Amino acid sequence: MSFFTYILECCDGSYYTGFTDDLECRVEAHQSGEYPDAYTLRRRPVKLVFYYEFTDADDALAFEKQIKGWRRAKKKALINGEWEKLPELSVAYNRR
Q1: 69-91 pLDDT per residue, tens
Q2: Which of 33, 35, 78, 79 is most buried by a 10 A CB count?
Q3: HSE on the CB side for 25, CA within 13 Å?
Q4: How are strands ordered across the β-sheet holding 46-54?
Q5: Four-residue CA torsion sign, 75, 80, 85, 86
């Protein structure tokens, strides 16, 4: 079974990070407004801009929590596939 950590870009430019075992279904649920208390409800349409697949649910959930703690610049680097910038962005942020 696969598990996914994903990032959606909302219509207001903000990012939503989540975790699921059915990526296509979950993105559609966000898009359709299925979750009335969801962050994305009033920020639709949303666009899937990043996902990472795991074989272990705990790993996917841990990555989701990690990303949720990141600032926007670091999330953007991840979305753009600029993995090499992630440590630099962490150090730069910690030195402030």
Answers
A1: 999 999 999 999 999 999 988 87
A2: 78
A3: 6
A4: 15-20, 3-10, 46-54
A5: positive
Cβ neighbours of 19 (radius 10 Å):
19
Interval 21-37: pLDDT, tens:
999 999 999 999 998 99
| Rounded Cα distance, 18 and 21, in Å | 11
Specify which residues 6 forms β-bridges with.
18, 51
pTM, two decimal places: 0.92
Query: How far is residue 31's CA from residue 68's CA, in Å, rounded to a whole number?
Result: 20
Cβ-based neighbours of 30, under 8 Å, separated by 6 or more? 8, 16, 18, 38, 40, 44, 46
How far is 63 from 69, CA to CA, in rounded Å?
10
d(C-alpha 76, C-alpha 54), whole Å = 21
Contact 19, 25 (CB under 8 A): no
